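Write out this protein's structure.
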Amino acid sequence: MALTPGTHLGPYEIVGLLGAGGMGEVYRAKDVKLGRDVALKLLPHAFTNDPDRLARFRREAQVLASLNHSHIGAIYGLDEANGSQFLVLELVDGESLDKRIARGKVPVDDALAIAKQIAEALEAAHEKGIIHRDLKPANIAVTSDGNVKVLDFGLAKATEPTSGTSLDVTHSPTITSPAMMTGVGVILGTAAYMSPEQAKGRVADKRSDVWAYGCVLYEMLTGSRAFTGNDVSDVLARILEREPDFSALPGMTPPAIRRLLRRSLEKDRKRRLPDIGVAVLEIDEALTTPAESALGFAARRTGMDWRAALGGALLAAAVVASAMIVYVRRTTVEPLVSRLEISTPGTILPFQFALSPDGRRVAFITITGAAGPQQLAVRSLDQAGVQILAGTESATNPFWAPDSRTIGFFAGTRLKRVDLSGGAPQVLADFATLSTARGATWNDNGVIVFAPTSNSGLMRVPATGGTPGEVTHLAAGEGGHQWPQFLPDGRHVLFLVAGGQSSTHGIYVASLDGGDPTRVVAAEQNAMYAPPGYLLRASQGVLVAQHFDAAQLTVSGDPFPVAQAVGQSDGANRSAFSVSPAGILVHRLAASDRRQLVWVDRTGKSLGTVGPPDDGNPTSPVLAPDEKRVANGRSVQNNTDIWLTDVDRAIATRFTFDPALDVSPVWSPDATQVVFRSSRKGSSDLFIKPANGATDEQPLLISQQNKTPLDWSRDGRFLLFSVLDAKTQSDLWVLPMAPSNGSLDARKPFPIVQTSFDETQGQFSPDGRWIVYTSNESGSDEVYVRPFPEAGGKRQVSTGGGSQPRWRGDGKELFYIAADAHLMAVSVRATSEGRAIEVETPLVLFSTHLANGQGISLTGYQSRALYAVTRDGRFLMNSNAASADIPPLTVVLNWQQELKARATR
C-alpha cells in the first residue's frame, strides 16, 4: 500500500512517490533531524519476512555503504519503522537516463561523456568486489550539470536467497518508468540488460556488468534497446542467439566505440571485455581522436569505392578532397601515438615500478617523510593522487596479478601479496635467499614464478602461498636467472641470464613443464613481451622492440627504437620500463646521478649536509680520523678522481689529476696520507699520496690483479684491500705497512679471507683484533666478523641479508644495511678470553636512501660502504638527492603504431 505525503517513518517525512518495482517502492522524503532530502526505498514484505535474507541484506548494505564515489548514489543507512524495512539513499536531483532516452537517441559526445562516468562508477565498485547485477538506464541518473549517478549498486546480490539459487526475473530489483513500460513492464525492464550467463541462470560476475554497460551505451547511441521482443522469452532468446544491429549506430560513432561495444557484448564472457576500466581508456581515445566522417564510414561499410562516393560532388576540388581523404583515412585507421608524463612522489628506487595488466595503474616504491618508511604505492594513470598500501613497509620489486587487483612484492626475506581493496598483506614464501630477489611474475592459473636471488635459478609458488619448487637450475657458467615474465600461454616464462660467463648472457624462455630453457637473443638487461608479438629490451639506454614469435620462441627482423635515454641499472641488470597487454608502455629516462652527503642521527633525522648536491657520481664517503675532511671519488668532465672536502667550510678540493680512474680513498691513521686505487698502469693498483698534496702519488702495490683499498688499521700496521680473482672471485688481503719487530715484510701481502665466494666491504675493528666484511657464501649477502690476524671462527652478524658494515668508534657496535635498505645496529663484545666475539640481535634504526646501494651487492671500486660513522655515532650518508631529481614516468599510448609506420617506409 502506497504511503501518502506527510506520513512519517521514524525521522523521515514522506514527500511523494518516485517509483515502484520488484525491489519495492521508492519515495522522496525529508530527513527532519538533519534537514536534508533523501530517497527511501521500502523493501517488499516477502523480502523482510525472510530472516536469513534480511540478515544477509544488512551485511551487504554495510559493504555497499563503503562505496564512496562521485558517480555512485550513496547509501546512508538501513532502518525500520511502522513495520517497514527501508533503505535511506542519496536523493539525486536529476533525470533518469531511461527518460532521457525516451526523448530520442543521445548525441555521440553527450553519450560518451555519460558512458565514461558510468564506467568509472562500475570500476570503483568492482575494485571493492561489488557487482551491480542490474545496470540499466532506469538505475542511472543524470543531473542538470551532466554529472552521472549510478544507483542500486549490488542490491541484486543482496536480495538473492541464501540458498544461492537465482532469483526469478519477476523479482529482480528494478523501477518501472515510462521509457521502460511495455506489455510486461517490470520484467522486460530488467531482462533487456541481462547477460547471456544471467539468462541461463548462472552466477554473475563483473563481466556481466560489462555486458549491461554495453547495452546501455548502445541504447544511448541508437535510441533503441540492443535486444527487444514481445515478451521476456523473446528478449532472452535474442540475447542468447542474436547480435545487436550495429548498423543502427550513428555514422559519426568513433571506431574505438564500435570496438568497445562489440567487445562488451561478446556472448562468451571469456572473450568479453575483462575489465570496465578499459572502457574509460577507449572513450578517452574517442574523445581526443578526430572523428571519422560519416561518408568515409558509409563507404567502408557498404564496400563502395570512396572515389565514387565523392564523385562529381568534389570533382572541382580534387586536390583538396584527396588531402582530406588521406587525413580521414589516417585518423581512422591509425590511432594516435600519445605521450604524457606522470610523477611518482617520494620515489627512491627509480627502476622498481610495474604497470598493471589493464594499463590503468602503475605500482612503485615510495617513502613517506624524511626518513621513510619505504612502502608500496599505486597511482592511476588518469589521476594525480597516490594510494599508499598499508603494511608494505620495506617493499621492493612489485609485480601484478593478472586481474590488476592484487600486487605481489618482496620485503626482506618474504614474498608477499596485497589487495588494492584493502586488508593486510599475505606472506607467500619466507626464506633467507629472498634478500637479493630479482623479480617475479603471475599467471592466470595462480602460479607465481620468482627469482629468489641474483645468482640462482627460478622458483615457483602458488599465489595463495605454499612450498616453493624449482622451475630452472643454473647451467655451467651461468650467474643467475632474473626478471621472469610469463608469456601469454601462461606456461612459458621469459627471463634474463646474467652474471657468470658473458657467453651465457641473454634472454631465455623456460617452461613450467620442464626441459632445458631456450635462448632467444643475447642481452645484458631484462626484456618484456608485449602483444601482439614484440620483445622489448634496452641496450645502451635505447629501448628497442623486435618481432617475437611466442610459439616458435624466435625473433625476426631488425630491432626498432621505441624510446631514447631509458634508465638502466647495471647492478641489477634491469631497465626502467614496463608494458601492459592493453597496449600501454611506461618508461623512465635515465636520472642524473645527483647525490648529497647528509648528516643523520640514529633516528634517521637529518642534521645537515656537507656541500651542495653533486652531479659527479660521488662514491663512498670516507671520514678522516680527525673527522675534519671527507675523501671520495668524483667525476668531472668524464674523469674520475679523488676529491677532499672540508667538512666545516664545505669546500671540495681535487686531490688526484691523472686521466685514469682514481677512486676508493683510505686515510692513514694520522690523516697525513691517502691510499687509493688507480687504473693508470692498466690493472687497478694501489697508490699512496700525502694528504696535503705536497708531492705526487707513488705506487704502493702493483700487480696484474684488480685491487681496491678498504681500510687502514688504527695502529698503522696493516692495509686491508680486496682482490678480484677470476678463480676465487673477490677476496680479502692484507698489506703490512709498518712492521713492529722486523718479522713482517712491509710490502708482502697475504690473504686473510680467500674462498670461492665474494668477500668484500671489509673494515678493521678499532682495536685491530677483528675484521668485519660481507660475503655471499650463503647465497645472499650477509655480514660476518672474524678475528685478526690469527685464524679463527667467524660469526654471522646480519640476519635476512646485509651489506656495507661499519664499526662504531669504540668497537662496541656494528652497523650494516639490511636487504630492505634499513640501517641496522648490532651490539658486539669479545668474550672474556678474547678469542671469540658475541653478537646481539640486530636492531632497526631507520630506512636509508643510499645511492645505488639498496639491495644490490656492490663490487669493484664501489665495494665499500656508502656511508661513514663518526666517533659519537652519527652517520654521513651518500644519499640520493631530492626525489624531484628523479625523472617522471613517460606513458606512451598506441606505441606500436610507430613500429607499423617504420615497417611501411
